[in-house]
Amino acid sequence: MTLSYLDKLQEDIGKTLEKVSSREKYINNQLEHLIQEYRSAQAKLSEAKERYQQASGGVTERTRVLAEISEELEKVKQEMEEKGSSMSDGAPVVKIKQSLNKLKQEILQMDVRIGVVEHTLLQTKLKEKSNMTRDMHATNFPEPAAGPFS
């Protein structure tokens, strides 16, 4: 009596395990393309992050160089003012002032370029994030028409 009950229980458990295994394979097959899309999206995100890091590193480096040039410019300005006050001829002073004005304009242009690059990087990052979010929400899981648990 107990032996036949255990045999029946073993048979039921075996059938249930088969059903679970079959269903697991079915679900894995159904979701395989979504997993591939997710991996692809993750790879694209990593690539975009890397490009962003490289670009922001470039902006940081250019900002540092700009600061060094500005500091150097201030030193030259002071030296020129000291020398200019002791000179009697005004032509070199005029040229120096023109050069300083030109440098100031170039600094302003560099500031604008840095701002544009920062804005572009931010827009790209936000677009990538938006695309990832949209892609993740756009995936639908198909309902099976008939299956072992129907």
Automatic annotation (TrEMBL):
One of its GO terms (biological process) is intraciliary transport. Its main location: other. One of its GO terms (cellular component) is Golgi apparatus. Transmembrane segments: none annotated. Keywords: Cell projection, Cilium, Coiled coil. The keyword Transmembrane helix does not apply. The keyword Aminoacyl-tRNA synthetase does not apply. It is found in: Cell projection, Cilium. Pfam families: IFT57. Residues 28-86 form a coiled coil. Belongs to the IFT57 family. This is Intraflagellar transport protein 57 homolog.
